[in-house]
Every structure is written in structure tokens, then in C-alpha cells.
Design goal:
single chain; 73 residues; 5 strands
Length: 73
């Protein structure tokens, strides 16, 4: 029972961490090529491998190995 409780708590913490950071991606035009603009895309909780709350900012590492920080916002 305790493991199930910890898993639920861990998921909610991951969701909270994911909500604070965004991935910057290029905007694709109608021709299928990047148009020089970028947009911020939310990171889902399922993508979060690990996270660390540093007090002033949160750092999230995704399952594909990318690191994102809320300090970049």
C-alpha cells in the first residue's frame, strides 16, 4: 500500500515540475520548413525522467536525455 501511495505522490510531483518548464521548438510554416520563429511547448509528466527543485528554479530531465530549466523562462 505504501508503494502505491508513493507512486501517486511521485506522479503529482512530476506533473508539477513538468508544468513549470517548456521546450522551445521551431515553428513550421505551410511549406514544411522552419520560418525562423519559435514557440514554447509544454512538457508532459510522462516525459519526465527526473527533476530537481533548486528553490529559485526547477530543472527537469526528460526520458530522451534533454535537460530543461524554469530559469530559462
Amino acid at each position: 500500500m505504501a508503494a502505491k501511495k508513493n507512486a501517486a505522490k511521485d506522479l503529482s510531483e512530476r506533473e508539477q515540475a513538468a508544468a513549470l518548464v517548456f521546450r522551445t521548438v521551431p515553428v513550421i510554416g505551410k511549406d514544411g520548413k522552419p520560418n525562423g520563429k519559435t514557440e514554447k511547448v509544454a512538457i508532459s509528466a510522462e516525459e519526465v525522467l527526473d527533476f530537481k527543485d533548486h528553490g529559485t528554479h526547477v530543472v527537469v530531465v526528460t526520458i530522451d536525455g534533454h535537460k530543461f530549466s524554469s530559469a530559462d523562462e
